[in-house]
């Protein structure tokens, strides 16, 4: 029996991925690749929707790919490639742009958030069209399952709407994908600002745990995480966002349920919870960091591996792109 097709990606927008990317994406991807025909992309074209430094972007793309592999994404079991190596992404995005309403794209909350933070002058058409490129990413592979964080739910809904619209106007061309959204526990918040999600582009790095951080640096950040004055280890997102976030991280890395962890730390202050969590993070990321550095030490081999995977992705993508071009009535090259 063929495995269901799965697609997901991450932006190479920093030197290292952060703990939220690891818990919310990489860890579930690793498990999902066993039961799916998975495509995992380093979505470099998406990263260009906000300013990037050309001198460092190339390196960030390699580093992101290396971290995928180091965290357990297998380039043999899965197709692990760089988005810009498969031109069909932007070609299909153009077709989808022509069936996307201006108002519809303008309602995307991520666009509204990012554009209001940046101001109108710094906001590009690329940022506006980001969700349409994401729809193309997904639809190109006849994807059934899209594992993403809750913040991406609206974009997958738009993808479904565009696929249904295209199929009803031009005939069945695309599979209608479904989002696979992690639970609330899978969302990780900034350690210094525990009501904002942990993010690669956070204003301050003090509350962000990087996968490639030195162990002592990660441990220090955890020991300094914002909590509250109560001194009671309990899970309550509203009243105790800092402690609840530490518990979520603990639970997702240890695989243990939150109530069990709460019971273990009953009657103890936050110190021992933080100390043990720091040890967990260091133990989890140590081997990932080591493997990522090994891979990054041989960029030529990493590039070859990405190129082989891009060939596989190109093959699958070309079939869908040709079908979409035919459906809208473009002339095939003779
Ligand atoms: N804090 C988080 N908790 C859980 N999951 C998270 N993800 C990101 N942050 C958290 C998940 O990581 C995947 C890749 O995200 P992305 O790189 O495409 O962009 P993002 O979601 O915007 O992540 P960042 O780190 O905040 O990047 P920047 O700063 O570049 O925008 C997604 O599946 C996401 O849900």
Instruction: From the 3D structure, determine the CATH topology of the largest domain.
Output: Rossmann fold
Decide which structural class fits the backbone: mainly alpha
* Small-molecule binders: adenosine-5'-tetraphosphate
Low-confidence stretches: none
**CATH architecture descriptor of the largest domain:** 3-Layer(aba) Sandwich
Q: Taking Cα atoms only, what radius of gyration do you get, to the nearest Å?
A: 21 Å
Strand line-up across the major sheet: 1-2-3
Listing every helix as H and every strand as E from the N terminus to the C terminus, the arrangement reads EHEHHEHHHHEHEHHHHH
Q: Describe the biggest sheet?
A: 3 strands, parallel
> How many domains would you count in the coordinates?
2
Provide the β-strand percentage band: 5-15%
Summarize the helices and strands and which ones pair or pack.
Layout (H helix, E strand, L loop, with lengths): L4 E6 L8 H14 L4 E6 L1 H4 L6 H17 L8 E4 L5 H10 L4 H5 L2 H10 L6 H15 L5 E4 L4 H18 L7 E4 L33 H9 L17 H14 L3 H7 L5 H27 L2 H30 L6
The chain binds adenosine-5'-tetraphosphate.
Nutshell version of this structure?
The chain contains 13 helices and five strands.
Question: Could you characterize what this model shows?
Answer:
The protein has 334 residues and is mainly alpha-helical. The chain has two domains: 5-186 and 298-328, HUPs (Rossmann fold, 3-Layer(aba) Sandwich); 205-293, Tyrosyl-Transfer RNA Synthetase (Orthogonal Bundle). 54% of the residues lie in helices and 7% in strands. The chain is built from 13 helices and five strands. The chain has helices at residues 19-32, 44-47, 54-70, 88-97, 102-106, 109-118, 125-139, 153-170, 215-223, 241-254, 258-264, 270-296, 299-328, and strands at residues 5-10, 37-42, 79-82, 145-148, 178-181. It has a three-stranded parallel beta sheet. β1 (5-10), α1 (19-32) and β2 (37-42) form a beta-alpha-beta unit. The longest helix is centred in the C-terminal third of the chain and has 30 residues, at 299-328. The radius of gyration is 21 Å and the shape is globular. The structure holds adenosine-5'-tetraphosphate.
């Amino acid at each position: 029996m063929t495995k269901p097709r799965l697609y997901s990606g991450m932006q190479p927008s920093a030197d290292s991925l952060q703990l939220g990317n690891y818990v919310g994406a990489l860890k579930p991807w690793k498990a999902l690749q066993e039961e799916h025909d998975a495509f995992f992309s380093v979505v470099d074209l998406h990263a260009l929707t906000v300013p990037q430094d050309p001198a460092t972007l190339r390196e960030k793309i390699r580093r992101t790919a290396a971290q995928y592999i180091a965290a357990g994404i297998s380039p043999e079991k899965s197709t692990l490639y760089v988005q810009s190596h498969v031109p069909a992404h932007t070609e299909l995005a153009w077709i989808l742009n022509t069936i996307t309403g201006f108002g519809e794209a303008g309602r995307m909350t991520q666009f509204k958030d990012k554009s209001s933070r940046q101001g109108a002058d710094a906001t590009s058409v690329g940022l506006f069209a980001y969700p349409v490129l994401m729809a193309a990413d997904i639809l190109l592979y006849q994807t059934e399952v899209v594992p993403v964080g809750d913040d991406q739910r609206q974009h997958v809904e738009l993808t479904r709407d565009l696929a249904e619209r295209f199929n009803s106007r031009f005939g069945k061309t695309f599979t209608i994908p479904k989002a696979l959204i992690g639970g609330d526990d899978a969302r990780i918040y900034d350690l210094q600002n525990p009501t904002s999600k942990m993010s690669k582009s956070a204003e301050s790095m003090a509350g962000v745990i990087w996968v490639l951080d030195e162990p002592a640096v990660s441990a220090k950040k955890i020991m300094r995480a914002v909590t509250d004055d109560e001194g009671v280890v309990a899970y309550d997102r509203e009243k105790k966002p800092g402690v609840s976030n530490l518990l979520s991280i603990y639970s997702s890395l240890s695989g243990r349920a939150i109530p069990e962890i709460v019971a273990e730390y009953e009657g103890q202050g936050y110190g021992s919870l933080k100390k043990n969590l720091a040890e967990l993070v260091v133990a989890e990321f140590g081997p990932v960091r080591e493997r990522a550095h090994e891979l990054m030490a041989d960029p030529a081999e990493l590039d070859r591996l990405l190129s082989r995977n891009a060939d596989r992705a190109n093959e699958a993508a070309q079939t869908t792109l040709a079908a979409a071009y035919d459906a809208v009535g473009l002339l095939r090259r003779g």
